[in-house]
Every structure is written in C-alpha cells, then in structure tokens.
Amino acid sequence: MELHWRLLTFIVILQSLLSQGFVLQDDRKCKYGRIEKLLRIRCYDLDLKEVPQNLKTSVEVLDLSYNRIRKLKSSSFQKYTDIKFLMLYENMILSVEPGTFEPLTSLQEIDLSSNGLTTIPLELFQLPRLRNLYIDSNELTSLDLRGLEKPIRAPLEYLNIANCELKELPDFGIMPKLWQLNASKNPLDNFQVDSLANFCHLQVIDLTKTQISQCGCQQVTNHIMMLGANPKFVPVCMEALDVRECPLPYNRTIHSPTFASCQTSVQLAETKNLWLFAAACFGGVCFVLLVVLYCFVRCRRKRVQKRMQKRKPFVISPRNAINRQPEDEPLHCDIART
Ligand SMILES: *[C@@H]1O[C@H](CO)[C@@H](O)[C@H](O)[C@H]1NC(C)=O
Ligand SMILES: *[C@@H]1O[C@H](CO)[C@@H](O)[C@H](O)[C@H]1NC(C)=O
User: Fold this and answer.
1) What is the pLDDT of residues 83-96, one digit of tens each?
2) How far apart are the CA of 209 and the centre of ligand 2, in A?
3) Is the CB of residue 66 less than 8 Å from the CB of residue 42?
4) What are φ and ψ of residue 95, in 5° steps?
5) Is residue 88 included in any domain, yes or no?
6) DSSP one-letter string for 128-192
7) Most buried in the list 31, 107, 147, 148, measured by CB within 10 Å?
8) Ligand number, closest to the Cα atom of 203
9) Is 108 part of any domain?
10) Nearest residue by C-alpha to atom 7 in ligand 2
C-alpha cells in the first residue's frame, strides 16, 4: 500500500513537471549549431507538420527529418535561399507544390528518402549546384518525365532511387558527373541496358535485390567491366548465356551516340573552364598593367607639378605669389587644381 502511494505521488509530480514544461521543453526546439563553419539548424523529430518559418534565414544545413510534414509549399523555402544541405527523410511528404525548390540555388544535397512521393519533383534536376539526391524508399510508380528538360542542369554525382517500385531505370538524360547510382530493391523487370549509356563516369552501381533478367545481368556485368567500374553491387549472374541468346551490350552502351555525347559534354565543360581560366589570367594581367601605367602617369605628373611649383616664384610677381599662397600648398591627391 505504502509503495503504491509513493509511486502515485511520484507520477503526479512527474506529470506536473511535464505539463509545466520543465523536463521536455528545451528538447522540443530546433537547435542551432555549426558544422564545418556552416550554420546548422536541427529540427528533427519534433512532430512538425510544416516547414518552420521562424528560423534564421541564413541557415545552410537544415535537418527536418523524422517529422510529420505532408506537403511542401512553394513558400516553404522562399526565405531560406542559403540552404546547402536539406534533410527531409522520414516524413509523410505526399505532394510538392511547383516552385518549392526553385529558390534553393545553393542546394548541394537533398534527402527525401522514406516519404510518400509518387514522382520526383522535376525542378530538382535544374538546380545549378545539386550534387547528391536521395529519394529512395518512396513509391515512384507514377514517375512522369515528359516535362523534364534535358540535358539536366544539376551536376548530379550521387543518385539513390533504391526501393521505389521502379520497373526500369528512369531516363533522366545524360549525367556526365554521376559516379554512384543506387537502384537496389526495385523490381526492374523491364530493365534495358541502354539506360546505362547516360552515365559515362559511373564507378558504382547497386542493382542488388532486383529482379533483373539473366541477360540483363550479364550485359550489365559486361558493361561494368568494360567501363572499369566496381562490380561489387551487381548481382552475380546465375548462368552464362551464349552471345546469340544475349548479345554483347557495347553498341547500346559505351559505343552508342548517347555515351559519346555524355563524354563530349564533360570535355566541353573542361575546355570551357580552361577558357574561363585563361580569360581570368588575361584580365588579371591587363589590370596589373593598367595599375602600373596609372601610377607611372601620376608620378610623372607630380614630378612636373613639383618642378612648376619650384619655378613659380621666378614667373609670378611677388605680390601675386603671396595672394595665391594657400593654393600653392602641395596637395597630394589633387591634380585638378593646377
Ligand atoms: C543502396 O540503398 C539502400 C537503401 O537506401 C542501402 O541499404 C544500400 O546500402 C545502398 N547501397 C550502397 C552501395 O550504398
Ligand atoms: C548491335 O550489334 C548487334 C550485333 O552484335 C546487331 O545485331 C545489332 O543490330 C546492333 N545494334 C545496334 C543498335 O546497332
């Protein structure tokens, strides 16, 4: 009996503490911090239903994972244009209004995994800095790429579309910088090896836990070997098929026009950079020359000025010289007066 009473009192006290917010309140707020000099705000697991609008607008790393956000609105990130890393995994996001991600021109990485998305917001592919896209564990069954502008603008290096019920690899067009593609845990029963021609710098591809056909498996393996990529996450093919049954994939992959255009786009970017660099060097040299020339002209003019001043008493009558005294003071930066 005694024990029961004690337990009861304890529970009552604990409850009053909780209701007054002594115990949990501090934990229920977004936390500010820095990570590698970037301003980070962590709002994970706070039962949030919307993107909070009262945060510091200079946030660069925003963690909104483990909340109850259902919808992203075009105004959700309007204020937070400095975000570079955005975590939205483990929410309930079902829809994304057009224009939601458009203001995020600094965005480098977004994690939208484990949500209820049925399609990928296509505007993500046009973000000029986006390198890493995680959209795994969604149900991308109604993925419609007709509105996708190709080639995409985002310099994607990492793409995770694992566990999304995909029947084939979606055709996002060439991705010259992509080095890791994770498509595991998708059925991929319509997989065509042609889709790999879009990635000319692929190093890792994860196709484990898919139902890719025997021939598909063999062709991917052939292609990966020829590319020099890592075959570790390509499923082991169970039987070796004859070339008549399962042709070599190269004229559909590395010897295809798509693959060639992927490679030239990289070369183009490189030459463009080289030209930009050369132009910058030239500009710099010109600037230095101009500065030197300017200094030279100024020094010369000053010297002439000084000589003129020294000569003045001989030229101007003594009276005039006295009257003009204040103007004859040697003024450093004033050339206009003479
Ligand atoms: C691919 O993604 C799945 C699910 O997100 C993950 O379990 C797996 O480790 C990833 N594979 C690689 C190679 O990173
Ligand atoms: C690829 O090569 C095979 C023979 O190896 C040929 O039958 C097929 O038509 C070629 N495909 C294309 C697209 O050129």
Assistant:
1) 999 999 999 999 99
2) 29
3) no
4) -140, 150
5) yes
6) TT--EEE--SS-GGG---TT--SS-SS---EEE--SS--SS-------TT--EEE-TTS--TT--
7) 107
8) 1
9) yes
10) 247
Nearest ligand, measured from the Cα of 258? 2
Q: What are 108's two structure tokens?
A: 């480098």
CATH number at residue 113: 3.80.10.10
Q: Is residue 203 part of a domain?
A: yes
Ligand 2 pocket, residue 247 CB under 6 Å = yes
Position 8 scores a pLDDT of 53
Which tens digits make up the pLDDT trace of 34-91? Answer: 999 999 999 999 999 999 999 999 999 999 999 999 999 999 999 999 999 999 999 9
| % of the chain surpassing 90 pLDDT | 69
Residue range 6-26: mean pLDDT, rounded: 50
Nearest alpha-carbon partner for 56 in 74, 38, 36:
38
Structural domain of residue 142, as residue ranges? 23-268
> How far apart are the CA of 16 and the centre of ligand 1, in A?
45
* pTM of the entire predicted model: 0.77
> What sign results for the dihedral spanned by CA atoms 45, 47, 49, 50?
negative
Q: Is residue 305 part of a domain?
A: no
**Overall number of domains in the chain:** 1
